[in-house]
Amino acid sequence: MRxxxxxxxxxxxxxxxxxxxxxxxxxxxxxxxxxxxxxxxPFWGKAQMDGELKISADWGETVKVTIKKDNNWFVKLRTPxxxxxxxxxxxxGDSILVYKNVLVGEVWVCSGQSNMExxxxxxxxxxxxxxxxxxxxxxxxxxxxxxxxxxxxxxNKQSGCGGTWVECNPENAxxxxxxxxxxxxxxxxxLKIPIGLIHTSWGGTPIEAWISSDYLKDIPDYKSxxxxxxxxxxxxxxxxxxxxxxxxMDMNNKTGADKWQGILSxxxxxxQAGYNDSLWxxxxxxxxxxxxxxxxxxxxxxxxxxxxxxxxWANKDLVLELGPVDDMDETYVNGTKIGQMMKDGLWQVDxxxxxxxxxxxxxxxxxxxxxxxxxxxxxxxGQESKLSVHPKGSDEKxxxxxxWKYLPVAVYKGGKFYxxxxxxxxxxxxxxxxxxxxxxxxxxxxxxxxxxxxxxxxKGAIWYQGESNAGQPERYTDLMKRMITNWRKEWMEGxxxxxxxxxxPFDYGEKTQSQKLREAQLKALSIPNTGMAVTMDxxxxxxxxxxxxKEVGARLALWALAKNYDKDVNYSGPLFKEMKxxxxxxxxxxTHTEKGLLLQPIKGNNNFLIAGKDKVFKxxxxxxxxxxxxxxxxxxxxxxxxxxCWGNIKEATLFNRAGLPASSFRTxxxxx
Length: 672
Fold this sequence. Notes:
It is a single chain. 17% of the residues lie in helices and 32% in strands. It has 11 helices and 36 strands. Strands 1, 3, 4, 6, 7, 8, 9, 10, 24, 25 and 26 form an 11-stranded mixed beta sheet that branches. Strands 11, 12, 13, 15, 16, 18, 22 and 23 form an 8-stranded antiparallel beta sheet that branches. Helix 5 crosses helix 11. The chain is globular, with a radius of gyration of 28 Å.
């Protein structure tokens, strides 16, 4: 049955498709794909027969390959200069598959965490993209094609993933990575050739999840985890087999604002006041359920709580406050739905729902909340003070913090719901794991979301990640080097360009010094053929997802245009090179000072600090002298060190006259 489903899906890719010989083709090959220009692009797959396979393209190129005894095949097809659309035909025996609307151009992989994942439509109401309505409205572009890898984790390298190539239009662009879209659009605007963007990211994930085990296992902290993953392979298979005994609801092809509406989970009646929840387990709320026995579950979980209210509240309108819910919820009181937020991006929004007096008939209320989490943290997780019920217009409150009954009824994995249901509380009997494999597990995303793309022909990669590693900045440069080396070696495309975004200012709190993570990213420029887009001037202290993704994408594109496409553009802001001490002054020299330096203090503060041997930093006076800065403080006779934008929320004040900001930096290496 499953083979028939796969074959039907492949047939939908083309007007011509006969036989079973192409059932093993990776989904990265589809109608609308973009092939890297002027090179030999790999094609590979698994046929259902021995013999010969032939690939022929409209531009006049044909290649043949003998299918191996194990039915695997691999061949390279020569591509012309950018152009299209073309047809590409595969033929093996009596089977023919024709890919339509194939473009030849520049292909880039776009990866990272939530700031790469954040779509053009944003995650309103709090996390929005600047001018998103206009951008989406005007996004129709037949020369830009998009591929989004379906989220998945794996304990070993996978050969396949979910996703399909689509043309850029308002519907598809709205859901696609904003950073990647703006990067691709800038390239298309400047180069006037087709651009293919392969988006593979997952919000909240650390860099080590995107690195294979071969490049992590010599680090003690990761070796023990990798060993556990290897030991748990049997348990992982048991869990997979167990999930596959339940009905499946595939969400991969569902789009639109109502995507998450009407998910059936065999849980009818869980909202009713009289429902028997005596066998349900107990969780103290508020909390993220990852910190409980539930662990890193994505899926649907019911929460129920029965409370007594004062008799004087009867027949009065009440207000239920839950605080924020990660990600979505449907909320019921005494069996009646009183509110819901079932759209992406509302995980930071407080739930405040009216309870009409018609539901308040006696001195008891049964509150039932159906929580859907599709990634990352899950649950009713805010402050205790926000979890309450009270009469409308009254300060008299009953706290709802504390014990709630709960039951998971569906698991969301790989874009699919595995519908476990409520009857029999079957979730509690799921196979136990030595290690819980999640999107945060080292190697898990490389295995499931990078390896399946290899060795598809690409030009390079862009990367926007780092926030989730800000707590351990000291190892980040090394991890970046490992990841980039890992990807380059496996892709066998040489030292392909790898451009990344330095994380923006944000108030992480006193325990996190994100300036050190930015410093680690700055040091990563020592890795050959890399580039860094600085965002010190376009962040926000109050949101970790700044909305000016257009500028982020454009700054990444500047590196590519200058380094890979021979365009005469300024592509980097000033980067600290060296300092010289002369009396009471320190002279700072920079690279990338094209057109000169520009200082733009914020409310009189230039964000430069200077210190003497006592290591006490004080605000600095800064003067521009040609391509240098002269830094001093009248109270410091013998200065030894300078720091710039050294803090979580310090914003850029130093630019070159091309308008590009300087990275934060320090001249010392003192321990805090």
